[in-house]
Amino acid sequence: MIALSLSGGGSRAIAFHLGCLRALNDRGVLKKISVISAVSGGSVIAGLYAYWNDDFEDFHERVLVFLRYGLNRAIARHLFSRKILPRVVATNLISRPLNTIAKCIGYKTPFRRWGSRTDALQDALHDLFGSLNLSEIRRSGLDIVFNACELRTGTAFRFGNHCSGGWRLGEIVNEEILVAHAVACSAAYPLFLPAFDQEYTFKKKGTTKRKRVIITDGGVYDNLGLGCLEPDKDPRYSLHAYHPDYILCCSAGHGQFTGEKIPYGFLSRTQATFESIFRKAQDASLNRLHLHKKIGNIKGFILPYLGQQDQNLPFQPTNLVRQQDVMNYPTNFAPMNLENIERLSNRGEQLTNILLSHYCPNL
Fold first, then answer.
1. Is 336 part of a structural domain of the chain?
2. Domain total for the chain?
3. Using one digit for the tens of pLDDT, what is the confidence trace for 190-200?
4. Which residues contact residue 101 at a Cβ distance below 8 angstroms, ignoring those fewer than 6 apart?
5. pTM for this model (two decimals)
6. Which domain CATH number covers 7?
């Protein structure tokens, strides 16, 4: 079994992963992949691939069009629509003040968030995916996992074409989940977007119960999407447990901090804190990958990494897109010009080819 993970990183990640997929397709590896585990921006491109059965050239063109337009304008359009704006106003005028009062006097938050910018993100993604349900995957023999994080329990919450939920809460039953909803949950970056405040019906150990969940970006828990792919994952503690022979982990992380930025204000300090935590968590995940390879749990893995230090590559093609040329692209869903798309995707393609040739030539 070959597993592919696609990290978060907004449109930067989508462009980088497009190049990685291009290399995998050219080498005949893409069609051999059994499961894709994706996070945030990686979930967008994973959904675009898994829920259409067109050829790679058409898929490639759809992703390019998406990157050129981005999501920001669609999010703004839906946010100010009749469907969402009144709910956002009601949340801020009624729900938020009452919840603050309840918290001050020691009561649980009584009202759910009725509407937010994240609902606008979901509707923008609905424009992209339509009313496709998670079970309607179009690529034969492929499983898909969209990674999110549930904040009440502080655990992974995953959406998939076979099942959705988390080990603490159980499996979602008696309802179909839209692809647009799953991708939006995975991509709700907490610094800019409120978490989804949802109720689902869960089944666990024979008991069915309606529960409230608070779901945010999967990068909070596992920005590489490796959790469900680790070969020693115990199915008692995960609804999604795979045991791949090879893991292809595509990471659109920036790499080491340059030390030039000064996180002075609240937002910049918070963002730097998030990135530092993500980096440390990712280091632990990658250390486990090396351990799995060392003790024989997997046959091999590669890590096409946007922030890869070029001098440490096994070899460098003469036309290599350098790390310093791409590492400062921000994390957002703004429209992207063709030059940036080409730089990011070409680096993904080059790194994937280099690492496959050196570490997994038999693939």
1. yes
2. 1
3. 878 889 999 99
4. none
5. 0.92
6. 3.40.1090.10
